[in-house]
Amino acid sequence: MNNGGYTANVPQQNMGGAGYSANVPPQVMSGAPISPTGKVMPAPQFEQSYIENILRLNLGKPATFYMTYENNSQWNAKIFSGVIEAAGRDHIIISERQTGRRIILLMVNLDYVVFDEPLTYQYPGVIGNPSQGGR
Question: Does pTM top 0.90 for this prediction?
Answer without folding.
Answer: no
